[in-house]
């Protein structure tokens, strides 16, 4: 994947964020999109070798649209400033997300504000065995890779059915259960970038497995 070309395209797009420019450069966009999909297909295959429970996700299924949804976000630009994709995208599961953009590059995984049924199941999993999740989060290599859980809105009080003196109340108050590993552009452009992704995926795997098991309770 020629990420130099991808960043160049995104720079030009953000300076000319309108349909007229995109229409004039659609051939460039389609070429990059196809190259990104081929790269995702290769990564999808390689990551699947690391995880017996991996859910195959072809690049065409994993890649996100570059158009912003202006119906729900009318004040956003017409086009995004990044290419994004999710891998290991089993229904109602904690996927693995790749984000390559101008303002940020990152690898992430987990659940972003899951619907109430899944959120309830995760909380019940924490109630049953929160020690396991806390041990994953406290593992030195995990903390070095991801830091803390992704910072999002949290409940101010215990969720319904739990008490404020619960031993894992801080975890239970979360609405989002995800972690993020930030990347700089040099890492994306480095020839070893694919191996970097696989290293992050491997470190994140116990966290995502815990969430997936909890979500199916």
Your description of this structure?
The protein is globular. The model has no long low-confidence stretch (mean pLDDT 94). β2 (95-101) and β3 (105-111) form a beta hairpin. It has helices at 3-15, 19-24, 26-48, 59-62, 116-138, 140-146, 169-172, 185-189, 193-215, and strands at residues 82-87, 95-101, 105-111, 177-183. It is built from nine helices and four strands, in the order ααααβββαααβαα. The chain has a four-stranded antiparallel beta sheet. The N and C termini lie far apart (40 Å). It is of the alpha+beta class and 217 residues long. α5 crosses α9.
Features:
217 residues, alpha+beta, 4-stranded antiparallel sheet, 9 helices, 4 strands, 50% helix, globular
User: How would you name the oligomeric state of the polypeptide chains in this document?
Assistant: single chain
Order of helices and strands: HHHHEEEHHHEHH
Please tell me the overall pLDDT: 94
Strand order of the largest sheet: 1-2-3-4
Helix content: 40-55%
* Main sheet: strands, sense, barrel: 4 strands, antiparallel
